[in-house]
Q: What sequence folds into this?
């Protein structure tokens, strides 16, 4: 069976290839990918090539399929897994499959990645419990389960003392506490805002910072202070671009300059890490969320407060399987609205070029419809694609949904967009 896939052959060498898949073994599963969400982690992988920790050294001879945020339909099940999976099941994938080398779908495998029409899941994926059933209304939201799980995992990794002088920790963000999301104007930051407002544990104060007013304005439109107030959260957006003392300004939003119980850093910025640590209250916890490309990345940290104020630092890289399951539930039950972070859609024929341009393209998540040909389209500016009857119909659906991508828009697209 032939498949088409975007494969990494070397540093910044991405190609849309067509090749033959082998017949599945008795412990493997054949699947059709429907959507993949482009991720900056993929850009890091293609920019580093064989030097990336998850990319094998032989990609020149054996290129890997890119993409790790994908959703689709199981088409054929090997004998071993027939009691557990059936053709027609919708799925999402947990990329952390328990590989000893750290290898993962979308980074490391010849027949397994999201930017493809059809793929083969190896036995290791199912053995690790990483192939998860998904019953959400849309495929694009399924592709957002993995990024949402990263946020869920980060919130779960926070910890605080059960009481002063206790060595017993309570895991998770501090319920009813103060929280700051620093540099949170990208898609992951937006998911964190959504989860902080609607998740099982909520802060009483949520401060979101950024350095671009346009992005902050978008965040405030999508996640309003009024909506947060209904959930018992005071939500404040702050532009820190021209602020000399960010710590002082943000502490001023807390009672008596108390500081913050939970601080999340969404950009690999040394200054941001340094003032983020200074903002912590007693027993405050900082999560360094953003993964830097620089292996020597470091920042000045106030260890006086580590010693005397019991401040602590954690870092998370992705979510685990339980985080994925929780994220599936959040999306299936529409607690978190993934549509708010989708700003572009495209077909597989443009996925290679757009992945290489990700740092230069604004907006949020870019959803690839892997079995279709389609240029990059901005969801709230579809009219830029001229003289296209299909897009004209699609725009009327988008308008009905406030120019957000939706299940209805996706169904129309899947039915009418050209096949690849």
A:
């Amino acid at each position: 069976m032939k498949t088409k896939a975007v494969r990494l052959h070397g540093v910044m060498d991405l190609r849309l290839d067509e090749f033959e898949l082998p017949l599945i073994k008795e412990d493997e599963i054949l699947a059709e990918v429907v959507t993949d969400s482009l991720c900056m982690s993929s850009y890091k992988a293609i920019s580093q090539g064989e030097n990336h920790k998850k990319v094998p050294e032989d990609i020149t001879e054996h290129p890997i399929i890119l993409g790790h945020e994908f959703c689709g339909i199981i088409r054929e099940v090997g004998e071993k897994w027939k009691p557990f999976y059936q053709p027609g099941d919708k799925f999402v994938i947990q990329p952390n499959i328990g590989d000893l080398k750290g290898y993962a779908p979308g980074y490391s495998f010849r027949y397994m990645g999201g930017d493809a029409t059809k793929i083969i899941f190896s036995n290791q994926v199912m053995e690790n419990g990483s192939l998860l059933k998904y019953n959400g209304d849309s495929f694009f939201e399924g592709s957002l389960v993995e990024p949402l799980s990263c946020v869920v995992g980060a919130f779960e990794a926070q910890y605080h003392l059960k009481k002063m002088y206790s060595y017993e920790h309570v895991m998770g963000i501090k319920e009813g506490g103060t929280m700051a999301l620093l540099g949170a104007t990208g898609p992951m930051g937006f998911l964190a805002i959504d989860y902080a407002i609607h998740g099982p544990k909520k802060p009483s104060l949520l401060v979101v910072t950024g350095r671009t007013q346009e992005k902050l304005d978008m965040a405030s439109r999508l996640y309003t202070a009024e909506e947060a107030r209904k959930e018992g959260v005071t939500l404040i957006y702050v532009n820190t671009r021209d602020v000399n003392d960010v710590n002082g300004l943000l502490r001023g939003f807390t009672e008596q300059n108390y500081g913050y119980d939970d601080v999340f850093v969404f950009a690999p910025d040394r200054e941001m890490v340094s003032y983020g640590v200074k903002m912590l209250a007693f027993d405050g916890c900082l999560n360094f969320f953003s993964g830097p490309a620089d292996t020597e990345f470091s920042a000045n940290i106030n260890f006086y407060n580590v010693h005397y104020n019991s401040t602590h630092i954690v870092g998370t890289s992705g979510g685990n399987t339980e985080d994925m399951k929780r994220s599936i539930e959040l999306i299936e039950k529409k607690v978190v609205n993934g549509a708010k972070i989708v700003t572009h859609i495209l077909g597989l024929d443009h996925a290679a070029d757009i992945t290489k341009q990700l740092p230069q393209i604004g907006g949020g998540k870019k959803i690839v419809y892997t079995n279709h040909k389609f240029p990059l389209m901005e969801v709230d500016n579809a009219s830029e694609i001229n003289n296209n009857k299909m897009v004209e119909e699609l725009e009327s659906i988008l308008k009905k949904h406030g120019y957000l991508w939706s299940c209805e828009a996706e169904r129309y697209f899947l039915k009418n967009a050209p096949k690849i």
